[in-house]
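Feature request, filed as a ticket because there's no other form

It would be nice if the structure record came with a short human-readable summary line next to the tokens. Right now we just get the raw output. Example of a typical job, pasted below so the devs can see what we mean:
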Amino acid sequence: MPERDYDTLVDMLARRSAKRGDFTLASGKRSSLYIDARLTTMSPDGLALIGPLGLNAVRALDPTVAAVGGLTLGADPISYAIAYASALPGGGPLVQAFTVRKEAKAHGTGKLIEGPFTAGHRVVVIEDVITTGGSALRAVDAIRAAGGTIAGVLALVDREEGGREAIEGAGLHVVSLVRASQILARV
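Raw output as currently delivered:
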């Protein structure tokens, strides 16, 4: 994908998803920057950019990846956009998308992982915004427990607050499409 697509994504995140103020993040940390990535990842033009960019990043991590997914809700639209991009002409082998629930269902099959995920799949864990890395590592644990093999973690945004290092400390490669510093330069 052309460099201008990355630039467009950074602009979109800065314009739509970044807010200045005093916020408590999901990690419990306080921050003067809040990135509500869903305002970008759930928009048609955001999905159209993120799918191919994410697919290219997944293929660069490991061309044999069979599926992408992560902890609901942040990972869901990104995973679906990547899976859809894999079905477009020139997308290469299909990549399935799945969702990791925050807790197993108490009814039906009681699954923790929903969608076309199978034990033995080689997967990339998706995260919308990495702060501490906790959500990605929860998804990693669930996927491993279900028999999946982790090829790495792909984040839409790395807040550059230690999450990447925590995930790498667990022995996983991390790729981010955008860094918080890039967004901050445009907010």
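Something like this underneath would help us a lot:
The beta strands are 18-24, 30-35, 67-71, 96-100, 113-114, 122-130, 149-158, 174-179.
Residues 133 and 166 are 6 Å apart (CA to CA).
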